[in-house]
């Protein structure tokens, strides 16, 4: 089972080879969950805008691109429930509370950064955190983070082809890794701790444009 997270910016330009790889996996009866981002949105005031952006722009665009590649996704909304993360501090920001749905082999599922609470209220959940929760719950063997950079960049702006938790911690403390990549690396190492064997980051699935965490590959 594979989880593929595509960030909001990377979504705007999905590589044909990414679509081809999805087709190949599905033809092999692999199950794939595509977790998409939406770009930066923060608080209560922006939630309505975010709902609008996701429903009128992000989902239609993603369905169109996948449809052109003859990929028909199933929305993974039922059975995935979020809860308020830290009421008062983050407003309508949520985190995944429970996953009770089951997945069928050879199907492509899609989930984005808006997840309902048990009261039916939509919450803004970080898409990297969703990818982690989904990978953990379904015991994914592989977790890809497709983003708008070729990988994690070192102090010389070079893509790191391998990154251990120790080196990552140093890059984070030296503020070489910041912002969205900081959150992504945290999610990636958590995923590694809960048993996801292979974790990669980059613009696509290709070797050389990716990050491999730990000692695999
Ligand atoms: N050391 C680093 N290597 C790569 N990207 C970094 C680094 N430090 C900060 N970043 C930033 O993190 C961004 C990726 O995170 P984010 O914008 O959240 O992407 P996504 O939308 O794909 O989740 C990059 O575009 C870059 O601006
Ligand atoms: C709580 C939180 O962080 N929500 C995210 C949801 C969108 C997202 O995660 O998009 P990317 O994957 O493209 O960054 C946000 O508001 O930015």
TrEMBL record:
Gene3D superfamilies documented for this protein: Acetylglutamate kinase-like
* A single GO BP: L-arginine biosynthetic process
Q: What class of enzyme is it?
A: transferase
> Where's the Aspartate/glutamate/uridylate kinase domain?
2-199
Cellular component (GO) terms are: cytoplasm
- One GO molecular-function annotation for this sequence? ATP binding
> What's the protein called, per UniProt?
acetylglutamate kinase
- This protein's species is Weissella cibaria
Gene name linked to the record: argB
């Amino acid at each position: 089972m594979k989880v593929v997270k595509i960030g909001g910016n990377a979504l705007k330009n999905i590589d044909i080879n990414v679509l081809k790889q999805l087709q190949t996996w599905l033809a092999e009866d692999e199950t794939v969950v595509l977790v998409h981002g939406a770009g930066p949105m923060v608080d209560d005031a922006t939630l309505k805008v975010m709902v609008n952006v996701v429903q009128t722009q992000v989902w239609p665009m993603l369905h169109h691109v996948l449809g052109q590649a003859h990929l028909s996704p199933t929305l993974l909304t039922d059975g995935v429930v979020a809860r308020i993360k830290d009421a008062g501090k983050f407003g309508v920001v949520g985190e995944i509370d429970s996953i009770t749905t089951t997945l069928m082999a050879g199907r492509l599922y899609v989930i984005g950064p808006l997840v309902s609470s048990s009261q039916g209220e939509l919450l803004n959940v970080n898409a990297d955190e969703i990818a982690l929760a989904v990978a953990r719950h379904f015991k994914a063997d592989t977790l890809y983070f497709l983003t708008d950079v070729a990988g994690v960049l070192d102090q010389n702006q070079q893509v790191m082809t391998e990154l251990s938790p120790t080196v990552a911690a140093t890059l984070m403390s030296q503020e070489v890794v910041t912002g969205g990549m900081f959150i992504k690396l945290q999610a990636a190492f958590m995923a590694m701790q809960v048993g996801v064997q292979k974790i990669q980051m980059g613009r696509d699935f290709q070797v050389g444009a990716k990050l491999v965490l730990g000692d695999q590959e």
